[in-house]
């Protein structure tokens, strides 16, 4: 039976994305706590394994199985998303939480560009201007992470953060397509399965001893990831990939605050300037505020 009233998209999609942004920031904090104790491959593998364990319980409890939709798209979501997460964890391992999350949060602008290239979506002047601002902002953040005396040399962490944003943008475009024909749990299954297959070789190559001291932070990574990713995917049944980026831009803000308050990480003026420029570029370039206000309400599957 179809409900007579559907909650407007501005209330149903965005609040869920704000909630997921908070959890993604907590996940980044837990990941940073594991830096130097576990390799990025181990952390990523732990995250995906916990997700698969959750789904192994979820499907029997719900009394149904996965609904794959178009299989090639389903596979691409996991491949792009898994690679993006691994690079993201490399960035967190090599940098502080704030800059790493900020670079990864550039994904909306790349999602817009990828949507134009492959889905023939319209490119506007503000989008190009936003790309310039985002690139400048990300460059300032990257510059702030360079070691003193190293001229024009960007660290692996900064490059990994930018790579995670590009792949993350591609993954979100695929998620948007998949959410029309499948459900959040099935999309999450692709993410966890292919993510584990991608990150496990890196974990085995750089395996570090496991101890009880890493159990709690690793569990925090996995559990916050499960809730955040399921909420994130479900919310995209109500908003476009570009419009959804409005709320997700809160993740860098939450991460900078958590990193500074709980971990005592330094916040340089250059990095803060880059963060502000980058966020302005994303919001302006993608026109997300206008799209959010005008998006029609729709019931997700």
SSE arrangement:
Layout lengths: L8 H25 L6 H23 L8 H24 L2 H8 L2 H13 L5 H20 L11 H23 L5 H22 L9 H21 L5 H8 L1 H13 L6 H18 L1 H7 L7
Helix pairs in contact: 1-9, 1-10, 1-11, 2-3, 2-8, 2-9, 3-7, 3-8, 4-7, 4-11, 5-7, 5-10, 6-12, 8-9, 10-13
Shape call:
globular
Distance between the termini: 13 Å
If you average the pLDDT, what whole number results?
A: 78
Q: Write the element-wise H/E pattern from the N-terminal end onward.
A: HHHHHHHHHHHHH
Please state the structural category: mainly alpha
- Total beta strand runs: 0
Strand portion, in percent? under 5%
Q: Major β-sheet, in short?
A: none
> Could you list the spans in which at least 5 consecutive residues all have pLDDT below 50?
1-7, 149-153, 297-301
| Fraction of residues in H or I helices | over 70%
Supply Rg. 19 Å
Give the helix tally. 13
């Amino acid at each position: 039976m179809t409900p007579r009233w559907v909650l407007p998209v501005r209330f149903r999609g965005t609040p869920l994305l704000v909630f997921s942004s908070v959890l993604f920031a907590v996940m980044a904090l837990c990941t940073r706590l594991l830096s130097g104790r576990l390799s990025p491959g181990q952390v990523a593998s732990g995250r995906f394994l916990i997700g698969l364990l959750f789904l192994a319980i979820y499907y029997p409890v719900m009394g149904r199985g996965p609904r794959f939709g178009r299989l090639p798209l389903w596979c691409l979501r996991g491949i792009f998303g898994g690679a993006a997460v691994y690079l993201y964890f490399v960035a967190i391992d090599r940098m502080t939480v704030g800059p790493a999350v900020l670079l990864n949060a550039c994904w909306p602008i790349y999602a817009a560009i990828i949507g134009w290239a492959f889905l023939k979506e319209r490119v506007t002047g503000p989008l190009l201007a936003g790309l310039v601002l985002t690139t400048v902002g990300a460059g300032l953040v990257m510059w702030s992470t360079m070691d003193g005396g190293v001229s024009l040399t960007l660290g692996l962490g900064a490059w990994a953060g930018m790579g995670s944003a590009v792949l993350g943008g591609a993954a979100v475009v695929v998620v948007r397509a998949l959410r029309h024909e499948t459900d959040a749990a099935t999309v999450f299954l692709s993410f966890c399965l292919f993510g584990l297959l991608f990150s496990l070789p890196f974990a085995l190559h750089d395996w570090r001893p496991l101890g009880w001291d890493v159990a709690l932070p690793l569990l925090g990574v996995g559990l916050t990831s499960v809730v955040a990713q399921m909420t994130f995917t479900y919310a995209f049944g109500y908003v476009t990939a570009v419009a959804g980026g409005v709320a997700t831009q809160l993740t860098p803000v939450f991460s900078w605050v958590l990193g500074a308050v709980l971990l005592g990480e330094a916040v340089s003026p250059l990095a803060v300037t880059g963060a502000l420029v980058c966020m302005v570029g994303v919001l302006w370039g993608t026109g997300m505020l206008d799209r959010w206000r005008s998006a029609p309400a729709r019931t997700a599957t």
